[in-house]
Design goal:
The chain is an alpha/beta fold. A six-stranded antiparallel sheet has the order 4-3-6-1-2-5. A five-stranded parallel sheet has the order 9-8-7-10-11, sandwiched between helices. Strands 13-12-18-14-16 form a five-stranded mixed sheet. It is built from ten helices and 18 strands. It is globular, with a radius of gyration of 24 Å.
Length: about 375
């Protein structure tokens, strides 16, 4: 059948005649394409924990492999996978190298009240299985735009994607300068300290500086926070270098302010989104008359329940057994996108909505807060 737009192109009759002369193709291209997509971009994987490594008193690395020993889907250094457990999911950066596809390393740090981090650290042992997504995320080096001289400001477990990037540089022999400024609460909390220091010592294009907020008596390195003065002293003029930032939520506004003091343009800063905002009411567009502790009614999939205005919709939905697909939990990936049929929600600044979403009522449930009774199409 001739496509209705075909007559708009010169020589379309000759092209159509050539297509008609070709023998029919019996191959099932749709199935082959689906198989290829599932291999490289799986929605779910059930993986075996082949090793559990205690990195620090508060952090554990889980090494994951396929049960049959075949390679895992490829990823870009800096990407993450979502781990599904206890009726919910959380994203964890892959700390291993893309050059070693037989395994993924996920480094998990305990956090006070952390539902999944503490669950994993307390219960998962070698030989257990974990369900994950495929690799996701845009927090990775793009050689066309990020250049070959980069700086990475990391805090706490935010060093995991930095280690993956460093391992990638070393394993693939990439000619890229990489300067890691890594802030930790204490010298006992520094993740991967020995490996990072050894890699920096062996590779002159890699530099690692540790900064400790509460040092012990034997610590001789920089102390305090990553102030603008300390960043300049350690990294020198940033000029046009790309700066990556990853760590606890409090690091992001702090680092952005310090980089602004140094005159570094926002377009040369890459942030790894790391969860919903700790206090959505602190954002300037939070409705002045909406109390975060006020209870509202949420209706979805034919059921209604009560929740607080200051709680992300995704968390409330999951607790009621309504579980949209989700991965990043920070507004970036858009997998938990839902439509607000009735009522009003506050979508946090972290939500990366499309231009049409506001017009048609869509939001990302992980960073959306119901400020009135709402009805959702999930």
């Amino acid at each position: 059948m001739k496509h209705p737009l075909a007559p708009l192109f010169d020589g379309h009759d000759d092209v159509q005649a050539e297509i008609d002369r070709r023998p029919a193709d019996p191959a099932d291209h749709a199935t082959a394409t689906r198989r290829l997509l599932d291999a490289h971009h799986p929605a779910r994987l059930t993986l075996t924990v082949s090793a559990v490594v205690a990195e620090t008193p508060t952090a554990v690395t889980f090494r994951l492999r396929r049960p049959d020993g075949t390679d895992l889907p490829p990823f870009l250094a800096g990407q993450y996978v979502a781990v599904h457990a206890d009726g919910t999911s959380r994203p964890y950066a892959i700390s291993s190298s893309p050059a070693r596809p037989d395994h993924w390393d996920l480094t998990v740090r305990r956090v006070p009240g952390g539902r999944i981090s503490n669950h994993l650290a307390d219960t998962v042992r070698t030989g257990d299985t974990l369900t994950t997504s495929g690799p996701l995320g845009t927090f990775h080096h793009n050689p066309l735009f990020h250049g070959d001289d980069v700086v990475f400001l990391a805090g706490g477990s935010g060093v995991a994607p930095a280690l993956s990037m460093i391992r990638d540089i070393v394993d693939h022999g990439i000619a890229r300068r990489f300067h890691l400024l890594y802030g930790s609460r204490s010298d006992g909390d520094i993740l991967f300290r020995d490996e990072l220091d050894a890699l920096a010592a062996d590779h002159p294009r890699i530099r690692v500086d540790h900064v400790v907020a509460d040092p012990g008596p034997r610590w001789a390195g920089p102390t305090g926070l990553l102030t603008s003065g300390l960043v300049h002293a350690l990294a020198g003029p940033l000029d046009g270098r790309m700066v990556y930032v990853c760590g606890p939520q409090a690091l992001y506004p702090y680092a952005l302010a310090r980089l602004a003091e140094l005159g570094h343009p926002a377009r040369r800063i890459r942030f790894e989104a790391n969860g919903a905002p700790a206090d959505p009411t602190a954002q300037p567009h939070w409705p002045a008359d909406a109390a975060p502790d006020a209870e509202v009614t949420v209706t979805a999939r034919g059921r209604s329940f009560r929740t607080r205005s200051g709680r992300p919709l995704l968390d409330a939905l999951e607790d009621e057994g309504v579980r949209p697909e989700a991965a990043c939990r920070s507004g970036e990936c858009g997998l938990c996108r839902v439509r607000v049929v009735k009522g009003t929600v506050h979508t946090a600044e972290e939500g990366r909505l499309r231009l049409s979403d506001t017009r048609f009522g869509y939001t990302h449930a992980c960073v959306a807060y119901p400020v009135t009774d709402v009805e959702l199409d999930v």
